[in-house]
Amino acid sequence: MLKKIAVLVAAALFTGGLRAPAYAWEPGDTVELVVPAAKGGADAMIRAIADIIEKNKLTKQKIVVVNKPGGSGAEGYLYIKGKPGSDTLVITLSNIFTLPVTMGTNFKWDELTPLARMALDPFILWVNADTPYKKADDYLAAARAESGKYKMGGTGAAQEDQIVTGLLEQSSKAKFVYVPLKGGGDVAKALAAKEIDSSVNNPSEAEALWKEGKVRPLGLFSSSRMTLPAWKDVPTMKEQGHNVEYVMMRGIFGPPDMKPEAVKYYTALLQKVAKTKEFQDYLIKNGLLNAYIADKEFRTWVAEQDDMHRKLLGTLGLK
Known about the structure:
Elements: H1 2-16, E1 30-35, H2 42-55, E2 62-67, H3 74-81, E3 88-92, H4 95-102, E4 113-122, E5 124-128, H5 136-145, E6 151-155, H6 160-172, E7 177-181, H7 184-192, E8 198-199, H8 203-211, E9 215-220, E10 247-254, H9 260-275, H10 277-285, E11 289-294, H11 295-315
């Protein structure tokens, strides 16, 4: 009998480590997950997180994903800034640092509640697969020879993609026409359709078209190659003589003045998500860097990123 009880207790402890435990505070009937972008990229990640929560029954509440891409993402941040209560979260990109500076948008990151950094998303220089360019310098030499002719597509204006483009222009001495589009999926499609000449898209946003043989990666904007199987052969820009590095945040924030017990609830929930095999598999499949941090550590990192972005925007003349 004692052995049977021990087995039951062990099983309960095991399932309790994944499934939703009892909390002092829990959200209402529905938790709204806001995406300050169009479908693709951040949208795909937050929907994956929602599916993981539902599949593993990590919360009793219904999860609803809402896209608010207006104003290069400003609509989504302003929406959650004005949202009362603690039943709404937003997936944050690094444009949370750039929009207040470049567009004068009426919000700052510290007006919201940082909860967790779920991953970091690197950038890759992409070209259409029909072009002859096999190395970054081949393409950059062509762009340099016809300054201002080649079109570089990116998500939004004066955001992450344009920052990477500006850093690349400084390093290569090439000059691009920057074409802002609604989202990473739109950028990848535009490149495949030859509506633009190149992009600095994230891995996940162009992977499907790469597998279809429509786009080609030329270089990774990172200090070292990715160790992920599908991406390990993509050389860094640094290897090719261009010391340009940039990664984008994939974080989760709550509304202003979130209750401490709500912060505790959501950080515990997101940590459970981060530890699931499904989430780890999602990172590998989509070329995302496993970089989970939360709470005070996350807040400190975000403050450093905000300062770095303000300096970058000033250096690149994007203020």
